């Protein structure tokens, strides 16, 4: 069925086998044999092939062991030594006079590994890189096209974004709350389109109604400290300027002062304040028994 | 003079006995769990007639265990006829019958007539003692269980001790209602000194009248007793009490002033009261008189009966007046309450009244000096705006309900002598009045004081007050001389005598007109200009036949703005003269370009092209100083109202012009209103009013209106970003005038309607964008009121649903605009649960908006939602809004 073998790999295998047979036959001739049985030749061919294969395999191992991909001469030498071959006899053997030269096997159509599609031209090596180094890979593997967007600095877009973000968060949060808790509805037949978190009475209703929320407290601190930044907000600037000398601001200034003076008096003058509600509670008088 | 003999002789007690030194009130047990109180009172009585064998005292809902007179057991009868007003009466079930029976019941226990619910028999062993006019000591043990009035317990239903729960109790009530919590002579005219003792849980504080002398632990150290002494003679009706786990703040400016609030609210208390010392300074300065008590206490409590209640040396306020520095809108309101409370300390607490018919003097003076404080604090514009508002209110009330009589004089008590037969209640007692009537009574009282000021000058007015205070102050320092103490009681005749002594002027006609009789004046004015004579022919008619009106005879000021200046004329309004000829000063002229002098001396350029070429009249004002309690309906041409709006500097005139311009929907009116709206020097309330007028005019002009919807471009210019006009700037409420305008404009814009009588889509989208882009992150102030008003704006934009065959409202046939509105309301209402706003303003607006949607047929009309928000445990503003919505179903 060898005739039927038609794949390039099979062809290659057959060609190599044939060459090896030629080599074995010429070596036998060189050794003085006039004829040989086919089976003997086959066996010797097999042995030679095994030997050469072993050299290749072993050399590859040595080469990879030293983190290379291409075997060097020393890899082969070490391999041969390891296989018990006297390397020193090799040059003399190679130069023997009675050696037969065999013609190169006809070049068969070598199996072509289909080349990867090249895109663009490979970069030449820069001058400081020796020419034996591998070529640059295809450009597509390293060329980068920047794809980031311009940082958003447009006021309108920022406001739009802040607004829709907040709205989305609020909507999601309230919907979640509504889904996980009791709800009320404006439409009897529908509870999901406009879900209202159920009204729940408080034990002390005035506390939540009067005290600023933590968010507001935080915001108040932030606006106090970031007043300078505020001035640079161009959108707000005209408003600021128009109020610079108006009443409200003064009022706020005085409120701040008051707070300061209040805390001052708390700390420093505590002892000086004579107020009946700050006086200590008296111990009860001991009742005399009559 | 007239029938005022009583005052000249001094005060005569209706009782056959007087108090000497003082009265002791001791409450030694307060049980918050059971809402009960146990205590005793001890009254020291000085008989003024022999054969005194019965002592009548006031006491309501108290259980009286034991009465002893000079350590002897005394029999007593307790009968409160007001508990069952219509005794087994089943035939006459009408308001008139009830009203008479109720007045009779109140009379039967009226301390000012020597009556009372509790009648104590003086033990016969003491009759001889009494005949010698010797002192009697009446000792009464009493308890109080679950009081229905007078003393209010607030006990939150949660874990922990009463102090940890913030449980508290306070006295409250309308007029003289001290009898609800201890037996006394519950009259404003029976003065004595007081010793008050309260034993409370060691974690609590008892705040009461006078000086806290000492606080002593009980033997088990678990309770403490607060001992108070009130050495200034005071009526029982001015005694008060508040007990709770209060946080204490000594006023940093005045150490004798102490503020109390409920736990956790101290930061708010600090901010809220930080202004009070300025009010003190103001009153002491104008009255040239020290604050009469040696100390002052403010207590802020929950579930207050009224926002402000003034008692001797202390005031009880609603805790809901407290606010932080971030809140704009509540600040002036709270300051007003503080100032009102303090004014009543001088007139109402320190100076009390002789009888119910003298109440108007106290309310009048305290309201008047409060007005002076308003003028100084908020400015003349705010003051005049307030006076106009109060005047409009009393006029509207009297025209609707009939007159309000400040100083009623009662005859024999027969029906025909009733000076207020037009009312469905008796005005003989404070307790039989309707609440609304009493509110209007107080309003009229201070307006009349202002009329007296107009007549005698403010300087004399303040001298009179000073005199009353000095006399009272001298009397109050007299010990054991109770006949001198009547100087601390004000009476109508005493007050008028003082005015006459100080000013030398006769104000009898004024008193007769506004105090001794009820009703207001209704003027109709119109004019014609007589070119030949260069005379303004003014016609002023009166309606004095309708209920609540009276005839006015006397001077009336008319101000005429002519080309050459502003001129005042005083007309004499007499019986049969309707026409008044007023000579004009200027000849009509058109071509001379000259500035027009205004009343305040200002000279301005005016575009005179709108005016009548033949007339030099720009505008006319009747009674510009509001010197008469009146309503004026005056007819002048639209251009005159427009000139008045643009150029008259008095805010009252501007507001009147705006009101009048509603009837003239023309491009000229539109322009005048827009110009006022844009003018930053213009008073912000006038600008706010102009917004609503502009909306009305725009609706009347809808077919000819050109340009964007009214106010939209102005709002954009004032409050939106320059680069992207559809986005509102991030909030900055530093300029309060802009803030109020920013809040109001969307609300007014939402009232705009297109030719189909719908709110224009553009306007709705505009408001939705305001909500969407609202950003308060960089603001120093809270935006809760602004957001609430944006919801109000959404509600204003709603128009009735187009109903096809009375289809049932479901989601499927929901109008797409309504869907957008509902989306916002749902989100806002839900966010309130997570981040509640101050006083839950947003919840309140959402509830109102939902009711509007229901009423207009967009959403099924179901009161379930409102009922749940009306339940106890929600913040009071929310409950009121919900209840109003529920009540609206009955309309």
UniProtKB/TrEMBL annotation, chain A:
One of its GO terms (cellular component) is cytoplasm. SUPFAM superfamilies: Histone-fold. Residues 12-89 form the Bromodomain associated domain. Signal peptide: none annotated. GO terms for biological process: cell differentiation; transcription initiation at RNA polymerase II promoter. Gene3D superfamilies: Histone, subunit A (1.10.20.10). Its main location: cytoplasm. Residues 219-233 have a biased composition (Acidic residues). Keywords: Cytoplasm, Developmental protein, Differentiation, Initiation factor, Nucleus, Protein biosynthesis, Transcription, Transcription regulation. CDD domains: HFD_TAF8, TAF8. The keyword Chaperone does not apply. Belongs to the TAF8 family. This is Transcription initiation factor TFIID subunit 8. It comes from Calypte anna (Anna's hummingbird).
TrEMBL record, chain B:
Keywords: Initiation factor, Nucleus, Protein biosynthesis, Transcription, Transcription regulation. GO terms for cellular component: transcription factor TFIID complex. It holds the Pfam family TPR_TAF2_C. Residues 638-891 form the Transcription initiation factor TFIID subunit 2 TPR repeats domain. It is found in: Nucleus. CDD domains: M1_like_TAF2. InterPro entries: Aminopeptidase_N-like_N_sf, Ig-like_TAF2, Peptidase_M4/M1_CTD_sf, TAF2, TPR_TAF2_C. GO terms for biological process: RNA polymerase II preinitiation complex assembly. GO terms for molecular function: chromatin binding; RNA polymerase II general transcription initiation factor activity; transcription cis-regulatory region binding; translation initiation factor activity. Residues 518-636 form the Transcription initiation factor TFIID subunit 2 Ig-like domain. Belongs to the TAF2 family. This is Transcription initiation factor TFIID subunit 2.
């Amino acid at each position: 069925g060898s005739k039927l073998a038609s794949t390039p790999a099979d062809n290659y295998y057959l060609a190599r086998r044939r060459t090896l047979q030629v080599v074995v036959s010429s070596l036998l001739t060189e050794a003085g044999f006039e004829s040989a049985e086919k089976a003997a030749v086959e066996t010797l061919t097999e042995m030679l092939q095994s030997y050469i294969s072993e050299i290749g395999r072993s050399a590859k191992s040595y080469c990879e062991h030293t983190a290379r991909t291409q075997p060097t001469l020393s890899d082969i030498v070490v391999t041969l030594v390891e296989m018990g071959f006297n390397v020193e006899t090799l040059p003399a053997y190679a130069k023997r006079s009675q050696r037969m030269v065999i013609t190169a096997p006809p070049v068969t159509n070598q199996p072509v590994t289909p080349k990867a599609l090249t895109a663009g031209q490979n970069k030449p090596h820069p001058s400081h890189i020796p020419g034996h180094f591998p070529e640059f890979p295809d450009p597509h593997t390293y060329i980068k096209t920047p794809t980031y967007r311009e940082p958003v600095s447009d006021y309108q877009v920022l406001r739009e974004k802040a607004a829709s973000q907040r709205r989305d968060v609020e909507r999601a949060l309230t919907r979640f709350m509504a889904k996980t808790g009791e709800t009320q509805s404006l439409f009897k037949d529908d509870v999901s389109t406009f879900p209202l978190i159920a009204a729940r009475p408080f034990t002390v209703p005035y506390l939540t109604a009067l005290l600023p929320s933590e968010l507001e407290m935080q915001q108040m601190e932030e606006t106090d400290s970031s007043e300078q930044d505020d001035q640079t907000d161009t959108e707000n600037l005209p408003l600021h300027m128009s109020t610079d000398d108006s009443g409200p601001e003064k009022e706020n200034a005085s409120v701040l002062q008051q707070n300061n003076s209040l805390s001052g008096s708390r700390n420093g003058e505590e002892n000086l304040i004579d107020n009946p509600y700050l006086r200590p509670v008296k111990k009860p008088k001991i009742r005399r028994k009559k | 003079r007239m029938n005022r003999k009583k005052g000249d002789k001094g005060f005569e007690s209706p009782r056959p006995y007087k108090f000497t030194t003082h009265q002791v009130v001791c409450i030694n047990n307060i049980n918050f769990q059971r809402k009960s109180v146990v205590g005793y009172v001890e009254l020291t009585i000085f008989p003024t007639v022999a054969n005194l064998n019965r002592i009548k005292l006031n006491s309501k809902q108290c259980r009286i265990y034991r009465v002893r007179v000079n350590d002897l057991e005394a029999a007593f009868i307790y009968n409160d006829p007001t508990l069952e007003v219509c005794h087994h009466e089943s035939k006459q079930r009408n308001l008139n019958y009830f009203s008479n029976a109720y007045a009779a019941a109140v009379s039967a226990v009226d301390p000012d007539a020597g009556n009372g619910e509790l009648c104590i028999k003086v033990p016969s062993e003491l009759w001889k003692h009494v005949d010698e006019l010797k002192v009697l000591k009446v000792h009464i043990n009493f308890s109080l269980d679950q009081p229905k009035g007078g003393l209010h317990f607030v006990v939150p239903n949660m874990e922990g001790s009463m102090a940890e729960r913030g449980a508290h109790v306070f006295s409250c009530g309308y007029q003289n209602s001290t009898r609800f919590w201890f037996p006394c002579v519950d009259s404003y005219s029976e003065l004595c000194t007081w010793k008050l003792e309260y034993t409370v849980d060691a974690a609590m504080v008892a705040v009461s009248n006078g000086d806290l002398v000492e606080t002593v632990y009980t033997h088990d150290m678990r309770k403490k007793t607060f001992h108070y002494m009130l050495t200034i003679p005071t009526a029982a009706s001015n005694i008060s009490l508040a007990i709770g786990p209060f946080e204490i703040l000594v006023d940093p400016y005045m150490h004798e002033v102490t503020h109390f609030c409920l736990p956790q609210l101290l930061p708010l208390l600090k901010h809220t009261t930080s202004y009070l010392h300025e009010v003190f300074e103001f009153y002491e300065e104008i009255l040239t008189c020290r604050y009469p008590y040696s100390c002052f206490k403010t207590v802020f409590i929950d579930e207050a009966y009224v926002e402000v209640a003034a008692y001797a040396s202390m005031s009880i306020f609603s805790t809901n007046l407290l606010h932080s520095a971030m809140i704009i809108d509540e600040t002036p309101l709270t300051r007003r309450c503080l100032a009102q409370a303090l004014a009543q300390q001088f007139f109402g607490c320190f100076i009390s009244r002789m009888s119910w018919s003298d109440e108007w003097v106290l309310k009048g003076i305290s309201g008047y000096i409060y007005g002076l404080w308003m003028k100084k604090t908020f400015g003349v514009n705010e003051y005049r705006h307030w006076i106009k508002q109060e005047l409009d209110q009393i006029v509207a009330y009297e025209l609707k309900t009939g007159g309000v009589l400040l100083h009623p004089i009662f005859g024999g008590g027969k029906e025909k002598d009733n000076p207020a037969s037009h009312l469905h209640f008796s005005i003989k007692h404070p307790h039989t009045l309707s609440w609304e009537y009493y509110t209007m009574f107080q309003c009229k009282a201070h307006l009349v004081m202002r009329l007296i000021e107009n007549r005698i000058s403010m300087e004399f007015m303040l001298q009179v007050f000073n005199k009353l205070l000095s006399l009272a102050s001298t009397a109050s320092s007299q010990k054991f001389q109770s006949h001198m103490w009547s100087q601390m009681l004000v009476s109508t005749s005493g007050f008028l005598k003082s005015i006459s002594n100080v000013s030398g002027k006769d104000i009898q006609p004024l008193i007769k007109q506004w105090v001794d009789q009820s009703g207001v004046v209704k003027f109709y004015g119109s004019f014609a200009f007589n070119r030949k004579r260069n005379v303004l022919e003014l016609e002023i008619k009166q309606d004095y036949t309708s209920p609540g009106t009276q005839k006015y005879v006397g001077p009336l000021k008319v101000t005429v703005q002519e080309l050459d200046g502003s001129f005042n004329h005083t007309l004499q309004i007499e019986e049969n003269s309707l026409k008044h000829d007023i000579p004009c000063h200027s000849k009509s002229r058109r071509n001379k370009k000259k500035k027009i002098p205004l009343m305040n001396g200002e000279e301005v350029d005016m575009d005179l092209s709108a005016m009548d070429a033949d007339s030099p009249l720009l505008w006319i004002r009747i009674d510009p100083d509001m010197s008469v309690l009146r309503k004026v309906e005056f007819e002048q041409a639209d251009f005159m109202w427009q000139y008045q709006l643009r150029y008259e500097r008095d805010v009252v005139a501007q507001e009147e012009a705006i009101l009048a311009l509603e009837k003239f929907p023309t491009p000229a009116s539109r322009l005048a209103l827009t110009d006022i709206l844009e003018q930053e020097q213009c008073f912000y309330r006038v600008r706010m009013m102009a917004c609503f007028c502009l909306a009305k005019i725009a609706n009347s002009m809808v077919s000819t209106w050109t340009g964007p919807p009214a106010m939209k471009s102005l709002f954009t210019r004032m409050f939106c970003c320059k680069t992207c006009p559809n986005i509102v700037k991030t909030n900055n409420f530093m300029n309060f005038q802009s803030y109020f305008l920013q809040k109001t404009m969307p609300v007014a814009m939402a009232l705009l309607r297109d030719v189909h009588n719908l709110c224009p889509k553009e306007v709705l989208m505009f408001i939705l964008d305001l909500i969407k882009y609202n950003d308060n992150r960089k603001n120093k102030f809270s935006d809760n009121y602004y957001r609430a008003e944006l919801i109000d704006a959404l509600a204003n934009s709603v128009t009735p649903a187009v109903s096809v065959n009375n289809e049932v409202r479901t989601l499927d046939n929901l109008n797409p605009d309504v869907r957008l509105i509902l989306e916002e309301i749902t989100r806002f209402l839900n966010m309130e649960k997570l981040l509640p706003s101050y006083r839950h303003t947003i919840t309140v607006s959402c509830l109102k908006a939902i009711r509007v949607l229901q009423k207009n047929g967009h959403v099924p009309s179901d009161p379930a939602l409102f009922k749940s928000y009306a339940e106890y445990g929600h913040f009071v503003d929310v409950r009121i809004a919900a209840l109003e919505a529920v009540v609206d179903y009955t309309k």
